[in-house]
Amino acid sequence: MSRAASLTPQQREQLFFWQRGANRLFIVSACTALFVALATLVILVADILIDGLPRFSLDFLTHYPSRKPQQAGILSALVGTLYMITLTALLAFPLGVGAAIHLEEFAKKNRFSKIIEINIANLAGVPSIVYGLLGLELFVRRLHFDRSLLAGSMTMALLILPIIIMASREALRAVPRSIREGSYALGASRWQTVYHQVIPLALPGILTGTILALSRAIGEAAPLMMIGALTYVAFLPDSLFAPFTVLPIQIFNWVSRPQQAFSVNAAAGIIVLLVILISMNAVAISLRNKFQKKRNW
């Protein structure tokens, strides 16, 4: 006999009263925490917009950094960010998706695979500055890439690689087992099943996870500062081995200046960075909806 069944009607009513009160308290606490977080975010964004919008202009986007705050722009940082995130995606996406497909569809479920899965999950939670130290030792010093765009992109690719692998594996797991069994029943091989059936169905989740991982990479400054990315660049990178800078480092450089005008430039740079992040998330949502509609057909 359960404990609730042994209670008297009065005790049951009292227990129900306390449970309902606890549920209401939990809902109020959760809503309060959500409201505080959203209010803080709105206040911060509003403060950035108030400070940065007057400085935001076409000249700000097309000028190089300068020691004079009124003439300073973010052209080199903006182009460097776009170059770096593009190269990072080219490096991390095929490696991450390929590793996820192998681990989920082809690898044997043994102790070695289990160790790899645990390590990937642990690497996803490693602080970004640790990847910066790894990139400094491996790419800058050992491989002699120096403080170049290639070294920075490879470091950021290592940073987001575990996230892409985990997101891709979850997307592959979401594909029903019946899809695979139906394909096998029609005579398709395992690779044909994965390529023609599983990957198209998992593609929305894979792309969403990849773009969200890239959104994290585009806002990271610590790993790039560890490998020696420059804080003042008055030129555009012309090769993979050219020095570079990115928006987070340029913003950090301006914030560290004592002049108030540089803080205004930093606010305008934050607006540009937010626009890029929102655009990337919008692309992720549109791609997911597009492929989900095709899947429903």
Structural class determined from secondary elements: mainly alpha
Question: Quick one: CATH class of the largest domain?
Answer: Mainly Alpha
Largest sheet: none
How many DSSP E strands? Answer: 0
Overall shape? globular
CATH architecture of the largest domain: Orthogonal Bundle
CATH superfamily (homologous) name of the largest domain: MetI-like
Mean pLDDT: 86
- Helical amount among residues, as a percent range? over 70%
Number of helices: 11
Q: Write the H/E string, N to C.
A: HHHHHHHHHHH
How is this fold's topology laid out?
Blueprint: H1 9-52, H2 58-62, H3 75-106, H4 111-123, H5 128-142, H6 149-173, H7 177-185, H8 190-218, H9 222-226, H10 247-255, H11 260-296
Helix pairs in contact: 1-11, 3-6, 3-8, 3-10, 5-6, 6-8, 7-8, 8-11, 10-11
